[in-house]
């Protein structure tokens, strides 16, 4: 018997859509310098939770180390991940520089806080091999 794809309990409903979209995001500071302390990571998480709420998304999980942060975000289909990332990085950079100017300046100088690049991966739900098999096994009419 082949494995079945079971929908996640994390399914959201909109007026015209049912969805469960999650992305794993990783951001690094410029030059991969390590400006993050526990206090700064905690504040970064608070800022990013607020930005996600403004976008109608949910920051499910957040963590980081001295030189990068990881986010797991649940988002609706109307949200472009690139726009969300731009706001997450822009707002957090501005606020962290304002709130921790001396510490941040020791690690990062100039106008940039985050590296311009980022990692994004879709995640959640069934593995793609299971979904592929499920689709292949659907009956065709006639």
UniProtKB/TrEMBL annotation:
It holds the Pfam family Y1_Tnp. GO terms for biological process: DNA transposition. Residues 18-138 form the Transposase IS200-like domain. Gene3D superfamilies: Transposase IS200-like. SUPFAM superfamilies: Transposase IS200-like (SSF143422). One of its GO terms (molecular function) is DNA binding. This is IS200/IS605 family transposase. The gene is tnpA.
